[in-house]
Amino acid sequence: xxxxxxxxxxxxxxxxxxxxxxxxxxxxxxxxxxxxxxxxxxxxxxxxxxxxxxxxxxxxxxxxxxxxxxxxxxxxxxxxxxxxxxxxxxxxxxxxxxxxxxxxxxxxxxxxxxxxxxxxxxxxxxxxxxxxxxxx
Length: 136
Description:
The chain is mainly α. The protein contains four helices and no strands. 71% of the residues lie in helices and 0% in strands. The longest helix is centred in the middle third of the chain and has 31 residues, at 51-81.
């Protein structure tokens, strides 16, 4: 069992870490969205089993995952700021949206490059990971 004081400290520390990671990731995702991130190579059409191809497929889903991390940051912060069970419910809803909406959408973006509106504009013309594996 943990004491209420140590549990509160852990919640505060977790909130600070999630908010810090989110704050550091947002500028990188803006640069990725605008094709201004160095180290992201140009499209490769037959990269089915290469490490660079897998990384590029994962890069397409990163903006969606960072948005989900923002939801988690809001949920954790609301749990600290809003008294009573309301903050806990907001945190639970944010976690549910992350688990049942953001993660499956990120998998769809990685595997099929769909929905196109959530893919960075310069990566929308590429094949999804599964189609690229089949066409090789």
